[in-house]
Amino acid sequence: MSFPFLSPEWIDAAREIRAEYRDRVPEPEIPMRANVVVREMPFGQNELRGYVDTSDGSIMLEIGELDDPELTVALDYATAQALFVTQDMGKLMEAFMGGKILVTGDVSKILTLSPPTDPEQIALANEIAARVSAITADEPQ
Length: 141
Description:
The protein has helices at residues 8-21, 77-86, 89-97, 108-111, 119-134, and strands at residues 33-39, 48-53, 60-63, 71-76, 101-105. The chain is of the alpha+beta class. The protein has a single domain (8-134), classed as SCP2 sterol-binding domain (Nonspecific Lipid-transfer Protein, Chain A, 2-Layer Sandwich). Strands 3-2-1-4-5 form a five-stranded mixed beta sheet. It is globular, with a radius of gyration of 15 Å. The two termini are 14 Å apart.
């Protein structure tokens, strides 16, 4: 079953996927505490606030806000979907260069992120991405 990206149902399904893979995903190399603001939501409120926290050695992506983030990333809905679902690096670079991704705070945290290079971790990342893509409806309802 698929749901509109970032809908409550999609978020619940994504949490289930995260829990299923929690013990197989390696610890992030660099801890990061970031708030994420998704603008231009096609449903519900105009804006959704969430956060990414890797400071305890696991990747926590949740709804809400951190009180003391190292950085804040603001982006539109389509760009967020390119980041979290399709992982379209070309679209992300175009969005960043076009000012659709605004970063405040310690930008170096983002610049140090890199995709996996180990073949097993690449395969795992692709498997997780396929699972996330499978729960994501093509168009918001």
